[in-house]
Each structure stands twice: as structure tokens, then as C-alpha cells.
Design a protein that fits this description.
about 110 residues; rod-shaped; transmembrane helix; transmembrane; single chain; mainly alpha
């Protein structure tokens, strides 16, 4: 029985899980040997360094793409809000006197 890797599910992971993977893989990759010896994982890191590096690169890339998406979405949302307010102010300036009376009575 083959195990299939759910790549799409991995890509859709919440960034908080990706942060954990980046931190763990970075610790395994960039820690000095003294630290790895204390944890008794030196042989594990030596054996799987390529895969740990791959996990680090992929998760870091996904985190960066999440960050770029979040920033672009926030900027777009802010710009849309500003243009909506500007349009609303223009419409208020173009109201007829009767429409202004109705609004004054309502508020």
C-alpha cells in the first residue's frame, strides 16, 4: 500500500503551523553540533539533512507567499475603502436640496 503525499493540503496549511516547521527545521539545520549532541539527534540530522533543508525551503517559501498575500490584500482593502469614502463624499455633494432635507430629517 502506497502512501500518497497530500501536497495541496500541505500548501493550504495555516501559517501558524508553517512557522513551527520553519523554526524546527532551522534549529535542526543551523544549530551547532554541541547542541545537537546534547539532544542526541546528531545522527538523525546528518542522515536527513537534505530533507530537513527541503522542508525548510518549502515552508519558508510558503510563509513568504502568505506574507506577500496578506500585505497586498491589506493594501488593496485600504485603497478600496478610501475610494469608497471618496465616492460617497462626491455623491453627498451632488444631492438635490430635497434629498438633503430627507437626510437631515432622518438623522
Amino acid at each position: 500500500m502506497k502512501k500518497e503525499i497530500d501536497l495541496l493540503g500541505f500548501i493550504k496549511l495555516n501559517p501558524k503551523y508553517l512557522i513551527g516547521l520553519v523554526i524546527a527545521s532551522a534549529i535542526l539545520l543551523f544549530s551547532p553540533d554541541i547542541f545537537l549532541n546534547k539532544l542526541a539527534i546528531t545522527s538523525f540530522v546528518d542522515k536527513y539533512r537534505v530533507w530537513i533543508g527541503l522542508v525548510f525551503l518549502v515552508t519558508a517559501s510558503l510563509l513568504i507567499s502568505h506574507l506577500i498575500w496578506y500585505i497586498s490584500y491589506s493594501v488593496k482593502d485600504r485603497l478600496d475603502g478610501q475610494s469608497f469614502q471618496k465616492l460617497g463624499k462626491q455623491r453627498l455633494k451632488n444631492l438635490t436640496p430635497r434629498e438633503k432635507e430627507i437626510l437631515i430629517d432622518a438623522y
